Amino acid sequence: MKKNIIRTLSLGFALVTLLPFTAAATSSEANYGGIYIDENNNRFVYEGEESKKVQTISPRSAEDCAVQSTTTNDVMIRHCGWKDYDDNYGNWRASSWTTAIRNGIDVRHYSEAQVVNAFTGGIVSNSGRVYGNAIVYAHSGYVKASNPGYAMRSYWGFD
Q: Between 85 and 35, where is the model more confident?
């Protein structure tokens, strides 16, 4: 009985860990990507179905953010996602910015930022897709920094 419980918990954790990265690419070149920062501030970058851990401490501002750069469908994408802290009130929010350029011309795209439950993947606060042609910023609502069960996700993409 005890072994079955441990196996179930391990399998459940593996499924929850993979939840934020579940996505289906429709072609060989991804039309979306983003950043996920888990409840332990481990940072992952993903493009389509691919994901990789890129650093262990999440940035606290747009200035500290390590920019994700990729080219897809001849469009150069630059994307950054971070936990934006408001130290005066003990809160943080998910934030992101994205640019998309093809042959020196801005391309219409979106940026999105979400605070999520780190264990279920459920959305706690969402900026929604913010569209534009130049640099596009997205910010979720604030959550209490003292809650250890929150993670953040940010996305870029085209429709």
A: 85
